[in-house]
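3.2 Worked example (two chains)
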Amino acid sequence: MKKKVLGILLAATMVLGTTTAAMAANLTLGTGGTTGTYYAVGGVMATVLNPLLDDVDLTVTSTGASKANIQLIDEEDADLAIVQNDVMYYAYTGTDLFEAEGAYDTFASVAGLYDETIQIVTCDGSIESVADLKGKTVSVGDAGSGTEFNAKQILGVYDLSFDDIKVVNAGFGDSAESLKDGKIDAAFVVAGAPTTAVVDLATTKDVHLVQLDDEHIEKLQADYDFYTATTIPAGTYKGVDEDATTVSVRATLIASTEVSEDDVYNLLKAMFDNKDDLVAGHAKFEFLNLEDAVAGISVPFHPGAVKYFAEQGIEVE
């Protein structure tokens, strides 16, 4: 098994729920920062599922999110994790975010949980297409982030590159402030919609969502099959009165290849059998369904997931 030296500090660790059997496997679930969605979603999983599982006890840990989680599984410091499906593709293939360190083969897919939507936000009504970003000042997310790679890929299918825009690297909150102050023309935001930073921006400025057309979505999916076509409904943000077509990546549950088939199978079964209780804990679980759970995932599935989905009439590899 390949090993990596990690330069990461775990910000916090919490254990939720009570072990329901003396011999239960204690599985560590890597999430994200303590104020983020991954951490909250993981906490609900532990709270709801631990009392129901005889053989698995989830321990939720705060981490540096997707890339760090894959490294933690490789180091055997986590057994399960929530990651973006594009980031796990880069890890499995040793490309983009993982080009320098090479491919990882110590994890497998379990299930897609919910969409993280690529939202191209502007306060300039004249920017109607990605092509209109040429020559504009655009925030593409933090340097080295998954958002930055999403921006490069989407610009690329419109025959644009970072050389064709004035690149700003900033997080979602800072990007929204810069849009408000007129310092940038547009921003890539990759998060579930509605996104708090954009909701707040829309209270003071007219917000527009730049759409992707079907032709370019198909071209993007041909190059990167982790993208799924998505519609942001009218009314998601104040003043956005029409549906907006774009693409999403997916927040995805993965597992170490060392986790047993039975443990992953039982975890998945408990999740789908108790979806209502998960939804009561966090609204993101509204999007947990069998069809979407396997969409946009190009990394092989864990044997426990293969077994569970096969029982539901869904064949995955």
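3.2.1 Second chain
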Amino acid sequence: MKTSYWLVAACLAASLPVQAQGFKPIEIEDQELSTLRGRYVMPGRIISFGIVMSSTWQNANGDVIGASTTLQIQQSTIKPQFYVSLVDTRGSGTSTAQGYGSVTGGAGLSATQGVTQSVRAAGDYNSAYNNVELNVRESAQAPQMDVPHGQVLAAGYTITGSNGAGSLSVSHNGSGISMGIQANNNQGHSAQRLAQGGLVQATTLLGGGNAVNNMTQLNVVLRDNLPSVGALDCNLDQLKGLRTFGY
């Protein structure tokens, strides 16, 4: 082997701290890893974060009940708040048929972790969608804040609404937000909840001709100008000495 190889190896070994030579890897338990997830973004990199959450239910008559809630946070945000806009549309149909379907089981759906999506149907001509979107992009500056609209939903409060399609409730318990729709005429119900690191979207259809949509969208904007070159290349500078050996 060439002398230069041995020389490079000796230099690298001599430059290592004494503590590093006796380093022994330590296995990290899953419970510890669970507390680290989602924390790998450099400080100051996120310049805008927003949540859009909506639920709607349309019955066979064309009546639509629903709500949309938004939250947007930037450096200039003084107090993050959820804004809720209700959806109330009257249809032109005349059908008032009762739903006679029956769905059993599913008790475990309320005890899941992470993202849970479920659709259970006991009727005909229904459609149901559970959608989760994560939009991440880079920008030199935060986007212009949208003008807030709707009612402010403070922690501990609930906003309700109702029409021919059913009744709606939007709640904020301080650690998360939830939406629930109970359709009229035993047509079914839907729920959407974002809290404690998990997301649940669930729909149960007992009648016919319904269209249900649950959507949660997370929007993140990252600063695209990286830290100073010196901060990133400090370790690479130590390797420049290898160039004299032909590497």
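3.3 Remarks
Residues 3-23, 229-236 have pLDDT under 50 and may be disordered.
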